[in-house]
Amino acid sequence: xxxxxxxxxxxxxxxxxxxxxxxxxxxxxxxxxxxxxxxxxxxxxxxxxxxxxxxxxxxxxxxxxxxxxxxxxxxxxxxxxxxxxxxxxxxxxxxxxxxx
Length: 100
Description:
This protein is an all-beta fold. 0% of the residues lie in helices and 34% in strands. It has no helices and 10 strands. A 5-stranded antiparallel sheet has the order 1-2-3-6-9, with no helix packed on it. The N and C termini lie far apart (40 Å).
Protein backbone atom coordinates (compact mmCIF):
# COMPACT_ATOMS: atom_id res chain seq x y z
CA UNK A 1 0.00 0.00 0.00
CA UNK A 2 1.36 3.42 -0.97
CA UNK A 3 0.82 5.64 2.05
CA UNK A 4 3.45 8.31 1.42
CA UNK A 5 5.91 8.41 4.31
CA UNK A 6 4.43 5.26 5.90
CA UNK A 7 4.56 1.57 5.06
CA UNK A 8 2.03 -1.14 5.80
CA UNK A 9 4.08 -4.23 6.71
CA UNK A 10 1.21 -6.76 6.63
CA UNK A 11 -2.41 -6.52 5.37
CA UNK A 12 -3.76 -7.38 8.85
CA UNK A 13 -1.78 -4.62 10.61
CA UNK A 14 -3.68 -1.84 12.37
CA UNK A 15 -0.57 0.36 12.47
CA UNK A 16 1.78 1.68 9.78
CA UNK A 17 5.48 2.37 10.22
CA UNK A 18 7.10 5.68 9.34
CA UNK A 19 9.80 5.35 6.67
CA UNK A 20 10.26 9.06 6.03
CA UNK A 21 9.88 11.91 8.53
CA UNK A 22 6.26 13.15 8.59
CA UNK A 23 5.08 16.49 9.93
CA UNK A 24 2.17 17.57 12.10
CA UNK A 25 -0.61 18.79 9.80
CA UNK A 26 0.66 16.77 6.83
CA UNK A 27 -2.05 15.04 4.78
CA UNK A 28 -1.60 11.36 3.95
CA UNK A 29 -3.80 8.74 2.31
CA UNK A 30 -4.89 5.82 4.53
CA UNK A 31 -6.93 3.09 2.86
CA UNK A 32 -8.14 5.62 0.28
CA UNK A 33 -9.06 8.38 2.75
CA UNK A 34 -7.18 11.62 3.38
CA UNK A 35 -6.01 11.87 7.01
CA UNK A 36 -4.24 14.88 8.56
CA UNK A 37 -1.49 13.87 10.97
CA UNK A 38 -2.04 15.31 14.47
CA UNK A 39 1.61 14.77 15.43
CA UNK A 40 5.10 14.86 13.97
CA UNK A 41 6.26 11.27 13.34
CA UNK A 42 9.88 10.20 13.09
CA UNK A 43 11.30 7.25 11.17
CA UNK A 44 10.54 3.88 12.75
CA UNK A 45 7.56 5.11 14.77
CA UNK A 46 3.98 3.93 14.19
CA UNK A 47 0.63 5.56 13.43
CA UNK A 48 -2.87 4.10 13.83
CA UNK A 49 -4.34 2.76 10.59
CA UNK A 50 -7.82 3.18 12.08
CA UNK A 51 -9.29 4.35 15.38
CA UNK A 52 -7.92 2.16 18.20
CA UNK A 53 -9.58 1.63 21.59
CA UNK A 54 -7.92 1.19 25.00
CA UNK A 55 -7.17 -2.50 25.55
CA UNK A 56 -7.18 -3.31 21.83
CA UNK A 57 -4.26 -5.35 20.46
CA UNK A 58 -1.74 -3.58 18.25
CA UNK A 59 -1.01 -5.68 15.17
CA UNK A 60 2.33 -5.25 13.39
CA UNK A 61 3.88 -7.79 10.98
CA UNK A 62 0.49 -9.55 11.20
CA UNK A 63 1.02 -10.38 14.89
CA UNK A 64 0.10 -8.70 18.19
CA UNK A 65 2.97 -6.62 19.62
CA UNK A 66 1.14 -4.91 22.49
CA UNK A 67 -2.07 -3.31 23.71
CA UNK A 68 -3.42 0.21 23.69
CA UNK A 69 -3.43 2.02 27.08
CA UNK A 70 -5.71 4.79 25.76
CA UNK A 71 -7.90 5.42 22.74
CA UNK A 72 -6.15 6.76 19.64
CA UNK A 73 -7.68 8.25 16.52
CA UNK A 74 -6.75 7.20 13.02
CA UNK A 75 -3.36 8.70 12.10
CA UNK A 76 -2.32 9.19 15.74
CA UNK A 77 1.21 8.43 16.92
CA UNK A 78 1.37 5.00 18.57
CA UNK A 79 4.25 4.64 21.00
CA UNK A 80 4.98 4.05 24.70
CA UNK A 81 2.80 7.03 25.74
CA UNK A 82 -0.34 5.19 24.60
CA UNK A 83 0.65 1.51 24.22
CA UNK A 84 2.31 -1.20 26.28
CA UNK A 85 4.08 -4.37 25.37
CA UNK A 86 2.27 -7.59 26.19
CA UNK A 87 5.63 -9.36 26.46
CA UNK A 88 8.10 -7.16 28.35
CA UNK A 89 7.61 -4.68 31.17
CA UNK A 90 8.89 -1.65 29.24
CA UNK A 91 10.58 -0.56 26.04
CA UNK A 92 12.84 1.80 27.98
CA UNK A 93 16.42 1.10 28.96
CA UNK A 94 15.75 1.86 32.63
CA UNK A 95 14.12 -1.55 33.12
CA UNK A 96 17.21 -3.36 31.84
CA UNK A 97 19.59 -1.26 33.96
CA UNK A 98 21.22 0.25 30.86
CA UNK A 99 19.51 3.63 31.10
CA UNK A 100 22.23 5.46 32.99
